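Structural prep section.
Before we set up the soaks we want a predicted structure of the protein with adenosine-5'-triphosphate in place, mainly to decide which crystallisation condition to try first. Input record follows.
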Amino acid sequence: MFELRNITAGYDTGTVLRDVSLTVPDNATVALLGPNGAGKTTLLRVASGLLKPYSGQILVDGVDVTGAAPHQLARKGVIHVPEGRGIFPSLTVADNVLLQSPPGRYRQGLAIATSTFPRLGERARQIAGTMSGGEQQMLALSHAYVGNPHVVLLDEVSMGLAPKIVEEIFEYLTDLGRRGVAQLLVEQYVGQALRMADFVYILDRGRISFAGEPGEISEETIMNSYLGSL
Ligand code: ATP
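Run finished without errors. Recording the tokens verbatim:
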């Protein structure tokens, strides 16, 4: 279980998150939705140790890890997939996996990457930068699942991709969720996120304005809330 408790955080320019609490149970996919500028990316940065909160706690399986550096949190299985694609475009798919796999675990890394996203197996020898945007996103995502993560923090993985490929990527992520990977998903595609999530939080101007199951709120209500507040 991954938990944020009463997090208040921000930048020199001002406070962004105010008393935010959120739980990602084991084996659950949790969607974090909200209008532009609400603080979703900031919350993921706090969750992965990139930004120290002013107050509040981060807990992994009940252990307080507040203040831990990103690499320490990564070692505890808190894996952040930031916006944009962190791949080496001039290297092959296989070499990208090699560089991202834990030392001595390349074969295992490749096996996990290609079983997670079978298309990568077909393209192992292709130069990563020549793949489609969707395939590059799959390669970037595959790194997150190689080290047997505790929770994967996904920031707008659909960004800049065609709806059809987004659907495909979401099917993979849903499948990973069912196989027991806890996921915290920040997403603009509200409908898709509601379909795959077990639990939904809406962040509005730095505060949680809704927490519940997807069946308790409609896409329309959420979209309307983006224009005003809930
Ligand atoms: P979007 O959906 O547009 O990506 P978001 O919900 O992810 O938005 P954040 O990116 O967390 O929102 O931004 C929340 C607020 O914090 C915004 O007002 C933004 O301008 C501000 N902010 C983000 N990063 C920084 C930074 N490095 N320094 C100062 N202010 C920042």
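Observations: Residues 11, 13, 16, 34, 36-42 surround adenosine-5'-triphosphate (CB under 6 Å).
Flagged for discussion at group meeting.
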